[in-house]
Design a protein that fits this description.
alpha/beta; Rossmann fold; four-stranded parallel beta sheet; 4 strands
């Protein structure tokens, strides 16, 4: 018997102020049947997350206006089940340890 309903795709939000990074990650994930939404600023990402949280968020640590730690805190408070993956082009152990404590 053919399966009538298909499990929903995992939703992933990608936010980085560098459009080439969000595009690269989306290009990699989309063919794997993930529902990928990309954002190039943290305010748009937060607004979209508040309307429809994602299963996974991939966020840059350092962005203008709101940094990745602000996003991490907000998203984990609003949706504890959401997994947040932080990425950065900078090596800063203090920031990494702060993120791990969230």
């Amino acid at each position: 018997m053919e399966q009538q309903s298909r499990e929903r795709s995992i939703s992933i939000m990608v936010v980085d102020d560098d459009p080439s990074i969000t595009e690269m990650i989306a290009d990699y994930l989309t063919p794997m049947d993930y529902n990928v939404r990309t954002y190039n600023n943290s305010h748009d990402c937060l607004a979209a997350f508040d309307e429809q949280p994602a299963d996974i968020v991939i966020a840059d640590f350092r962005m203008p206006e709101l940094d990745g730690l602000v996003l991490l805190r907000h998203m984990k408070e609003a949706s504890p089940a959401t997994e947040v993956i932080m990425i950065t082009g900078y090596g800063d152990m203090e920031i990494e340890l702060d993120a791990l404590s969230k």
